[in-house]
Amino acid sequence: MAFIADYIFDLALSELDTATSTLYICTQEPTTYAEASSTYAKGAKTSLSIGAPADRSPSGRKVTIAAITDGSVTGDGTVTHWAITKSGTTLMATGSLSASQAVTNGNTFTLAAFDIGIADAT
User: Fold this and answer.
1) pLDDT tens digit string along 20-73?
2) I want to staple 49 with a disulfide (CB 3.0 to 4.6 A). Which of 25, 66, 86, 102 is the partner?
């Protein structure tokens, strides 16, 4: 059975907190920084609050992205995904929103808290 120590997962997950600059809401799942920050982006939130690594159920480790109540909408459309990027260079993580949402330029968006995790090796 494979094994990876929790602190190895924690190093990767901690990088989300220390290197992350922006969460974007997107019209589809991006695969590059340019897609996340420009092509599919309809809004953004900087200064994310990301919790410390913790146990994930049923296995592995996770961090929790705190709820967002004041994201800025920068375009009209229907968003389906979120993307977290590193300061102007790297797409760090993506995921689906719990439900798609129509957004209008100039408004604010909200997101409930959510987890990003890594499963244990099997």
Assistant:
1) 889 999 999 999 999 999 999 999 999 999 999 999 999 999 999 999 999 999
2) 66
CA angle 101, 40, 68 (to 5 degrees): 50
Phi-psi map region of 38: left, alpha, beta (phi>0 left; psi -120 to 50 alpha): alpha
Q: Is-contact 45 21, C-beta < 8 A?
A: no
- CB 60, CB 118: distance < 8 Å: yes
| DSSP helix, strand, coil percent of the chain (3-state; round to 5) | 15, 50, 35
Sequence-ordered list of residues with C-beta below 8 angstroms from that of 11, at least 6 positions apart, any chain: none
Q: What is the pTM of this model?
A: 0.93
